[in-house]
Amino acid sequence: MNHIVLVHPAIPQNTGNIMRTCVATNTHLHLIKPLGFSLDDKHMKRAGLDYIKDLNLTVYENWEDFVSKNKGHYHFYTRYSNRTYTEEDYTQEGEHYLFFGHEHDGIPHDILRDHLDECVRIPMFASSRSLNLSNTVAIGIYECLRQQDFPQLVRHEVQKGEDFLLREAE
Fold it and tell me: Which of 58, 64, 101, 104 has the maximum number of C-beta atoms within 10 A of its C-beta?
């Protein structure tokens, strides 16, 4: 299974959008405290819409609590890596954890230093400081899923039907 791990997220709307992405990709979401908002925040709930009821969510008191309960392949998304996220191998057997940090400070540097070989970055134009957190999560999880051949994801329109555009034209 794939997992998204947010380390100290601060902006409720970003977390709400990420919740929606996790439901759409059948991905477990992990939040590591401290959080910059309450899980009852109206902005987070609005961004997550009605998907939140289907979310697989676990909240941890701190980094040590998370690490003690979750073993697998760790992938840290940070601007400090020289390897791109597409160079990472997400096809290895086992659990894959994609880590993303606080919107302002990223993943704490002491955590990154302990996992330098597991750090990746998303290339950007030199004058850009960062991407929006929810966009970064979407880029990361879809690369992971692409390499895994999109396990359990539907490849056609479900709600209106696979041939909706053809039927609509008739």
Answer: 101
